[in-house]
């Protein structure tokens, strides 16, 4: 059977989703001085970078981008931040990933910040597949897709030989 790709979002639609979510983040944090955007590597950080770019143009608060590297195959939490996690104390964290499927990645991402007193933590994903195995909900979602487990959502961002897009395979 050939590998069929169905276009879900094109480049312009991806940017429209990110723009809308940036305004939602702005509305949720109007009184803040700084918001930390934690992009989960490898692709959540691409969404986080774009979110930060929009926020820098529309928000009165400072937005700071950090990268979160998780070992998603581990049975325990193994993570690296590119800053000391204590720098996040008493701040707002927006945890960003490209696709939410089971919720394991976001659950691990939340775990990184459990020992730090935060003002609040929010989650943001470009695509929510609605197949959660973990009790994770998103605060800001680009699009919710009802898919079957065998289908795969492919988010293409920042690839030199391909235009930004989201495909369902």
From TrEMBL:
Keyword match Methyltransferase: no
Keyword Coiled coil part of the UniProt annotation: no
Gene3D superfamilies: 3.40.50.2020
Domain Phosphoribosyltransferase positions: 9-141
Keywords: Glycosyltransferase, Transferase
Top-level division of the source organism's lineage: Bacteria
MF terms in GO: glycosyltransferase activity
Identification of the protein by name: Phosphoribosyltransferase
